[in-house]
Design brief:
The complex is a heterodimer. Chain A has a two-stranded antiparallel ribbon with strand order 1-2. By secondary structure, chain A is an alpha+beta fold. Chain A has seven helices and two strands; from the N terminus they run ααββααααα. The radius of gyration of chain A is 14 Å and the shape is globular. Helices cover 37% and strands 16% of the residues of chain B. Chain B has a seven-stranded mixed sheet with strand order 4-10-9-8-7-5-6, with helices on both faces. A four-stranded antiparallel sheet of chain B has the order 13-14-17-16. Chain B has a two-stranded antiparallel sheet with strand order 1-2. In chain B, helix 7 links the parallel strand 8 and strand 9. The longest helix of chain B has 22 residues. The chains are: A alpha+beta, B alpha/beta. At the A-B interface, helix 2 and helix 3 of A face helix 11 of B.
Amino acid sequence: MTDFPTPHTVKQQLQACRSKEETFKALVTLSKALPRLSGEEKTEDNKIKGCESAVWLIVEEDAGRRYFRADSDAKLMRGVLVAVISLVTGKTQQAIQEKDLKAELAELNLSSYLTSSRSNGVLAILQALQA
Amino acid sequence: MAFDSYTLRNQFPILQQTAYGYPLAYLDNAATTQKPLFVLDAIQDYYRSFNANVHRGAHFLSDRATNHFEQARERLAHFINAPKNSHVIWSKGATEAINMVAYGLEHLLQKDDEILITSLEHHANLVPWQQLAFRTGARLRVLPLTSNGEWENEYQKYFTDRTRIFAATQVSNAIGVSTPLKTMIAEAQKYHAFTLVDGAQAVAHYPVDVQDIDCDFYVFSGHKMYGPTGIGVLYGKSQALEVLIPYQTGGEMVRHVAYQATEFNLLPYRLEAGTPHIEGAIGLAAACEFLTQQDRPALLAWEQKLANHVYTRLIKEGGIELYSPEKNTTLVSLSVPNIHTIDLNAYLDSKGVAVRAGSHCAHPLMAQLGVSGTLRASFACYNTLEEADQFCDVLLEAIEILGDD
C-alpha cells in the first residue's frame, strides 16, 4: 500500500494524462492507495445509493475535522474515491461544504470518461461527502 | 456465400461512424438492434404519405393508414406462422405483452395455485408473475435450468395439478442459451396450464413457428429485431386470448358504450385500447419483411460464427470465465475474476466497443452463477469479424491494465 496521496499529487497524476487509456492507468495506480474496508464495515447503511458499482463510505470526526474511509468493488471507482477523498479529508465540515467539488473533479479530467450513470454515482458520493 | 455482412451493413447508416476516434463496434444487439434503411423509410413514408388515425373516420388517408396497419398485422402473423391475423395483438413490447397476460388471467387464479417460471428468466418474465402471485395468493415456483439450458434432475416434480401458468424464455438474454422449450411446453400442457413463451431474444435470430411451439402465448419486442422501439406483439391462441380480461380499456376496444355498461369489441381490438402505435406497427412489419428477404439460416450461422470466434479466442487466453455456451449462441457472456465488469465496460467504451455490463435484468440468475454481473457482447447480422476481434483485443488490453494490483 502506498501512502494516501495529497491533492497536489493527485492533480499532477491525473492532469498529466493525455488519453483515456492513461487516465485509466492513473486511476488504477491511485486505487492502490485506498485502504480497503473490512467486511463488517461494508454495511447497507454505509452503502451509497445510485452507483453502478457498490460504494461504501464511512465518515469519522476527530477534533472538529472529518476523515473519510471508503471502498468499492470496482477498481476505477476506488481510484476516483482516492482522488475525491484527497480533496476533502482532514477538513472541517464547513470547509468541505464550501467547496465546489464538481468543478474540482472536472479539473482532474474525471468528468470526461465517466459515463452518465456512473457520474450520477459520483454525484451521490459528492453529496455524501458534503452532508 | 449468399450473405455478406459487409454489404448488408451498408443498409444501417448509424454504423457508419466512429466513437472517440475509433471504429464503432456495436455489440449490444441483445439490448437493441440498429435499424436498416428499409425500416427507416417505411416509417418516414407513413408520416409523409398516409398518416391518419386508423379504424375511424372514413376518409382517404384514414383508409390508407388502416390498410397499412392491418397489412402490418398480417405480415406479423405470417412471420410467426399464426393461424389468423386476429391472433396478433400489438403491445409496447415483450414486457407489456407479459403484463397483459398476467393481468388478464388474474380472474382465473386462486390461492395456492402455482405459477411456474424457469431460472433463466429476464425480470420482465419474472416480476409480473411474482406480483400476480402476491395479488392472488398463488405461489411463484422456479424450475431450475442449468447454465447450459438443460433440465435439473427431477424436473417433473415442478409441474403439478396446481400449475396454472408456465412462463419460459426461448433464449436467455444474459447467457445466450436456448431452453428445451417444446418439452417444457408439452409437460405444462399435461397439467392444462396456460403457457407463455418470451421470444424477445429469439425472433431476430431464429425462425419462429408459434403453432409448432404450441404455446398459448408468445411475446416479443420489435426493437430487438431491427424494428422500432415501443412496439411489440402478444400472440395468443384464440381461446387463450378470449379469456384475457382487458387490462386497459377506453376507445377503439369497444363496440357500444352506455353509462350503465360497455360492450367490448372482438379480438384483436378488444385488447388494444386507444390509438395504436401505427408507425411502430408499420416499422415492425418492414423489419419482418427485411428479415424475410435475407437468407436467414446464413445470418444465424454468421452470428453464431462471430460468437464462437470470440469464445474460442478468449478461452485460449485463460483467466476469463465464460457463461455462454461455446456453440449455437449469438452472444458471449463473461467475467474476469477481480475486475469489475463496469470497469471493463468503461475501458471498452473508451475504444469504441459498445457492450453491456451488469446483471442483464436477471438478478436471480446472476446469483445462481455466483457473480454480480457479466460483460455481454451480443451479435447481429451486420457485425463483422473485425469487430469481434476489436472486442477481444480491447478486452485483453483492459484486463492487462485493470488487472494490475
